[in-house]
Amino acid sequence: MNPATQTPQQTGTMGLLSQLNRVVFRRATEDVLGMKMKQLIALEILARNEGCLQQDLGSTLMLDPNNCVLLLNELDERGYVERRRDPCDRRRHIVVITAAGAKALKKATAKLEELEGEVLANLDPAEREQLRDLLARAMEGQDPSVALLCG
């Protein structure tokens, strides 16, 4: 059978997750969210932590140091993050979300939740909650460096 004509049910769980991920990323544009999806994810990580080493943030986001700096420069230009020297090691930076960043994150998260409702429209609220719980449980056993956590 031609892979291009396979229905989603024939691709397996990981294939379905990948397809759903692509649907969301294609629809979660900067125009829709008010920021890029990678910016939203970075702000979400920072909002969950009182401070995150820049190097740890880059590792968590799976970005090389140069791309992490570019991302942080974008967020800094918008006033969403602040980089401070680590008092324990002046060569390192601690990144924190600002009040403006928290406000922008809240708005973007609300837009993403609307998009989630559209993408998962074929599931009732109980099924959506079950899906979220199952995915969260699957993430529990994963490497914390990919689970949106910082050092």
DSSP strand content: 5-15%
Element-level helix/strand string? HHHEHHEEHH
Strand line-up of the largest beta sheet: 1-3-2
Give the class-level CATH name of the domain at 34-110.
Answer: Mainly Alpha
What Rg is obtained from the alpha carbons, in whole angstroms? 18 Å
**Count of separate DSSP helical elements:** 7
Residue ranges: pLDDT <50 for 5 or more in a row?
none
Specify the overall morphology: globular
Helix content: 55-70%
Question: In this structure, how is the largest beta sheet organized?
Answer: 3 strands, antiparallel
CATH architecture group name of the domain at 34-110: Orthogonal Bundle
Q: Could you give me the name of the CATH homologous superfamily of the domain at 34-110?
A: Winged helix-like DNA-binding domain superfamily/Winged helix DNA-binding domain
Instruction: Write the CATH fold name of the domain at 34-110.
Output: Arc Repressor Mutant, subunit A
Number of strands: 3
Mean pLDDT: 88
Secondary structure category? mainly alpha
Gap between N and C termini, in Å? 46 Å
